[in-house]
Specification:
homodimer, about 650 residues, mainly alpha, Clc chloride channel, 4 domains, 3-stranded mixed sheet, two-stranded antiparallel ribbon, 27 helices, globular, CBS_dom_sf (chains A, B), transmembrane helix (chains A, B)
Chain lengths: ~650, ~650
């Protein structure tokens, strides 16, 4: 006696669809060009068969996901470069007219930010922010269809282009939204794959995990760190069946992104995005490892300070009535005002001259990663980047210090902007500046002979900038993949060991005492149902007993129910399946496919994985509620030995 | 009415232990030097407190694991280098006496192999082979104490040193046994940690996962690929809580390994093990990607052939009566004979002159990764490595072809040797030779103008060797981490994209049609209870219903059992806990801590992870066997919203 009610009968629907397709192939008197359509359809079906013969349809989906994301990334870079160049050109043309220059400098980013904010506010409000907290939540199994719509894709793409075109004055990045963009493409492609595939299994979960990897990979052309990032943001366990698709898709994305750059004539061949030329003979002295470790600790401490300010402002914007009003109704105005304020501070004739504000984000990073020592080169006109940092004649270290102090609160303020924006790249650049400051100090100290004896090769401050960037961004996001990302971005594998050491130490400091990460703070502030981040704010949550969260009454049917009672139960319940119990209240029948009850007819592989995953010693097995036996590891081993016997 | 029988009452034991410790501190009239001992103990306790204040004791364990493995790795490299040099010196001294040279060339490795085989046969038979299949099985949750004993550690270390000292004639490697060695150290350290730790939670599972990462990391000084390797060999899900420990321990191991190399004077600073000097300006032309893809497909095809031969010889040694007798009783003799045979073939005055047999494994790899083109340099005496490959005056490509043909069956034969040995490095070198052959062909074709027009920079055959090494070893082991390992070993990040592409394609070919990998074949041959590998040999296994593997009768107690019945049940059963049922056979009481039954008092986080991991829609909850309700995603979300309300 088994009762199973499938309210939306998928299989029947599918059958009717396929039969309809067949009918279309044979004859359909209403539509024109019957023969052409039929031939075309047959060709398409043949193509599908041929493609499906080489590998599963989903693999084409993974490849398409990588390539599409790379195309989007390339297009965005292309248009942002044009917009930034236009701004620079206008600013140069107005040379001599200081007031006009001021307005050009401030109004351009202000307008762009206002446009981005009002655009996303009016078309798709869920397109604002980084998107990584939402993606994490979706990867943990919670469906949020708003965040995967095509409207959101469109809005986020245009809004992000505007934000990035506002340049280094608002100091925002691209990574987070790109991870979100690629998950949207992934969700769309997985729907397509399900349509085309023969066996209608759901691939959406897999596609989302893969898309998270592709986002980082095609943003920077860095496949391996993309996959590691995907491993890190996954809920609590990374399924190995996602591993190969992740790598495949990320490799496609990274390769396509770099090939587009080659074909567009930017670079001659595939190479790292921020390629550096560190001296290869002696990248660093072994004892410098200790200084790198110190840098890691410093980055961890600064990240704690930054994250505290960030949490404070998130709280403030939610409690201050003026902010609440501005952020709910006047998003465009607010964004424009904040951008204007930030831009007026960075105006090159004011404080901006002490913080290299004329450089774009990319140029900032490239200048910070420069291998030469600035403090000794400040009078050498041939070295371009350091000139920007000492344009006012002040020492480089002072410029770096001003940059660090100002950008700290400017970054915190920029986080409140309600537009699509990433926060990884700014943090990465900030860390690079922090590392550079220490590196310059060390280089200066060593060149003036404080640490005498090793004068043959000078200290490379660029290496410290690299380690600082990885360590600070890793500490802020509580991840280790920035270490690998820094290496892949610059192509400097020689510094792998110190970068990894600094990142590990910075993470240790940042994660101590259950502090929430940057994304955790946003998750909590946005009230996203993400257990790991919520557990940091409310440590008792994971240990809440099931009894406290259980729904008191569920619809259930008696074994001896009459047809009328069944009818009533179906009408009352919103569930697709209703459990049947006998007169003792004892569970009588459940469908195994969709409900995970440790039932008699479970498959062996499921038992194996439950024993492994939950680190269980014994599994009790019930058949229709009654205990029929138990499974322990020795039993599993026994099965293996029986199999081997044949 | 709940009954719980803990046969080994841990808590009570612990309490008595701590009270005993306290008593020791106060007074113990029998033992001498009471005061000194008391002071020492107090100091140690204080130290433990101080250390525990900075971070958990397990983190010191992870650091120690990395450093100890690195020390072992360095010591082994050191002694192997000495032994190889001694052999070379002797061979050189005997120059002119061809017969003596022959005996020196053949008997040295034969004796070493015989010693290694009989040593491991007599002391610890489970120390033979690679160890990776066994480690995989242990990571999947099955305990095999034989494989983690200290005797095994000792035997494996000495045996492996002998095997490696036999050099490139027997052509065996170090990686696999090192992963095994590090898991043994890990198991020992986890026992130590459990002794020292305050809260006696089991950390052995975590330590084993970490140890798998450390093995590769300290073998090559490559931390990131070590972690990726650990992710890949894990059963089916990689737990994120292992991620940071893995990286930390792998970084410690890699750093220590490289620092030892620096301090021993081998190298000036921390750098890649097989550092190459590829031209950085234009590493490869974008269209060469297609050639790299072709190389990947070729490597995949050759790997299928190699794996087929490997499976055949594994089957042959298990069915052929002569082999069975040799391999059970005369392991030493067999190993010596095979090594003698292999060595006589590679004797430099015979076939060996066509296959660069005078180079060690390391020199072979370095020569193959050389960036210059050999075919055009063959008359240039200043280029050392290519000289070895064309010492007989024959063209380089012919030497490479002979090398590939001979080594194929020699490798297969070497796999039957019953001694501690790794099979990764040989496969890696073989792949490099395969890539080199293609690379030399392409370089020759392009230099003679077949692909004219791009004459300004020549093709780099070393890049093909690198991609071939990664692709072939990845295809043989069905993993992707060799791609990253190849990059970390050589420091050539510029070739990341083509190496990854080649590895992915080679894997696609090798994994098609559910073919077992190298380690899968060994797992099946050794009858290890490892589900993923067994599933490839017997595809129906994972879908076997639970009912078929259930033990028919389990000891259970009636709710109304008399004390005598309880006593009997306890005496009969070998389980530590006995379920209690009521008169309907309905499950009445189970302890939640050790038995995973979806019970009323489960914690919220467990429910969350079960819903996520098993991709379930609904969980039915039973309290004492009776259905009390069900949990779906909306309920979980509801909990979140309640939490957020406060």
């Amino acid at each position: 006696f088994t009762l199973e009610i499938n309210k939306n009968n998928w299989e029947g629907e599918n059958q009717s669809k396929t039969s309809r397709n067949k009918n279309l192939l044979i004859a359909d008197p209403v539509k024109p060009c019957q023969r052409t359509r039929a031939v075309l359809k047959e060709c398409l079906l043949k193509l599908r068969y041929c493609l499906g013969h080489v590998c599963g349809m989903e693999w084409y989906g993974f490849a398409a996901l990588g390539i599409l994301t790379a195309i989007l990334s390339f297009l965005m870079d292309f248009s942002v470069t044009k917009l930034l160049r236009a701004h620079q050109w206008l600013y140069m043309k107005l040379d001599g007219h200081i007031l006009l220059q001021f307005f050009c400098w401030t109004l351009y980013p202000a307008c762009l930010c206002a446009v981005a904010a009002s655009f996303s506010h009016n078309i798709c409000p869920s397109s604002t922010g980084s998107g990584i907290p939402e993606v994490r939540t979706m990867l943990a199994g919670i469906t949020m269809p708003d965040y995967l719509s095509l409207t959101n894709l469109f809005t986020k793409f245009l809004g992000l282009t505007c934000t990035l075109a506002a340049g280094s004055t608002v100091f925002l990045g691209k990574v987070g939204p790109f991870v979100h963009l690629s998950t949207m493409i992934g969700a769309y492609l997985s729907k397509l794959c399900t349509l085309v595939q023969d066996n209608k299994e759901k691939a959406s979960g897999k596609m989302l995990v893969v898309a998270a990897a592709v986002g980082v990979a095609s943003c920077f052309g860095a496949p391996v760190s993309g996959v590691l990032f995907s491993v890190e943001v996954m809920c609590s366990h990374f399924a190995l069946r996602h591993y190969c698709p992740c790598f495949f898709s990320a490799a496609c994305g990274a390769l396509a992104f770099r090939l587009f750059s080659v074909w567009s004539g930017d670079i001659e061949t595939l190479q790292a995005l921020f390629k550096t030329n560190f001296p290869t003979a002696l990248p660093f002295y072994p004892l410098e490892i200790l200084l790198f470790a110190l840098l890691g600790l410093l980055c961890g401490a600064v990240s704690c300070c930054y994250l505290f300010c960030h949490r404070w402002i998130l709280q403030f914007t939610k409690t201050n009535p003026i902010f609440i009003k501005m952020l709910t109704t006047e998003k465009g105005l607010y964004s424009g005002m904040v951008a204007f304020f930030l831009a007026s501070l960075t105006f090159p004739e004011s404080v901006g001259q002490h913080m290299a504000s004329q450089l774009t984000m990319k140029q900032l990073l490239i200048s910070l990663l420069d291998s030469g020592q600035w403090s000794s080169q400040s009078h050498n006109a041939s070295v371009q980047p350091s000139l920007e940092w000492s344009s006012s004649g002040s020492p480089v270290c002072l410029s770096l210090a001003v940059f660090l102090l100002m950008k700290m609160w400017m970054l915190v303020l920029a986080c409140t902007l309600p537009l699509p924006a990433g926060f990884f790249m700014p943090v990465f650049v900030y860390g690079a500046a922090l590392g550079r400051l220490l590196g310059e100090g060390v280089a200066y100290a060593s060149s003036t002979g404080v640490t005498s004896g090793q004068q043959q090769a000078s200290i490379n401050p660029g290496g410290y900038a690299l380690a600082g960037a990885a360590a600070f961004s890793g500490a802020v996001t509580h991840t280790l993949s920035p270490a690998l990302l820094a290496i892949e971005l610059t192509g400097q594998l020689s510094h792998a060991a110190p970068v990894l050491a600094a990142t590990l130490l910075a993470n240790a400091v940042a994660r101590s005492r259950q502090r929430p990460s940057f994304y955790d703070a946003i998750s909590i502030s946005k009230r996203l149902p993400h257990l790991p981040s919520l557990a940091k704010a409310c440590p008792s949550l994971p240990f809440t007993p099931l009894g406290q969260v259980l729904r008191a009454k569920s619809v259930q049917l008696q074994k001896a129910a009459t047809p009328l009672e069944v009818q009533q139960a179906v009408n009352t319940s919103t569930e697709t399946q209703i459990p049947v119990v006998d007169s003792h209240g004892l569970l009588y029948s459940v469908s195994i496919s969709s409900q995970k009850y440790m039932d008699f007819s479970f498959a062996f592989s499921q038992v194996h994985s439950i024993l492994t995953l939950l680190e269980a010693e014994t599994l009790l097995v019930a058949e229709r509620g009654r205990l029929v036996g138990l499974i322990t590891w020795p039993d599993v081993l026994n099965v293996f030995s029986i199999i081997y016997m044949y």
